[in-house]
Design goal:
Elements (H helix, E strand, L loop, with lengths): L2 E5 L6 H10 L4 E4 L16 H10 L3 E4 L7 H13 L12 H12 L4 H8 L5 E5 L9 H13 L3 E3 L3
Parallel strand pairs: 1-4, 1-5, 2-3, 2-4
Helix pairs in contact: 3-4, 4-6
């Protein structure tokens, strides 16, 4: 059974981001974004082609799991809360209850943790769950990690800048 870590892009520079993955022993990187780009010059390392190239150099397998990304309506619900509270996405620290409920219904109600791990393959020992938000509690990756920890009794470590 693999161990899981979570990591976001915001708050890291490329050197520290990839260094954190290596230090954690990550061998499998699951990109949980629907759209695999990040705006701004500080985060070009997290854009899909550059990210995949650097991970390959480090010997870390890259998997894209858009089926675990929140759908448009779920993202829109969070965007509405962010707008109402004047919270920039990059500064969000928690997800709204509406987002959490919608994501769980949309993506986790039919989710099979054992099948997810089986799909990762036997070579997966330390798996990174990735999206962009800095704080795990502000990102759907924490909801997936929580589900895996609950269902499988696996440890989850949140890597933070």
């Amino acid at each position: 059974m693999p161990e899981f870590v979570t990591i976001g892009a915001y708050g890291w520079d490329a050197e520290r981001f990839f260094g954190a993955l290596v230090a954690a022993g990550v061998d499998t990187f699951c990109d949980l974004r629907a759209r695999r780009g990040v705006r701004g010059p500080d985060y070009t390392f997290a854009n899909s082609q550059r990210l995949q190239a650097r991970l390959a150099e480090l010997g870390i397998r890259y998997l894209h799991r858009p089926d675990l990304a929140p759908g448009a309506a779920t993202r829109s619900a969070q965007a509405g809360v962010d707008a109402a509270t004047h919270t920039a996405k990059r500064l969000r620290t928690v997800l709204s209850p509406a987002f959490i409920d919608a994501y769980r219904h949309e993506r986790l109600d039919g989710f099979d943790s054992a099948a997810f791990v089986a799909d990762l393959g036997p070579e997966a020992r330390v798996v990174a769950l990735f999206c962009v938000e800095r704080t795990p509690a502000a990102c759907h990756r924490s909801l997936l990690a929580e589900r895996l920890a609950h269902d499988l009794g696996v440890p989850v470590t949140h890597l933070a800048p």
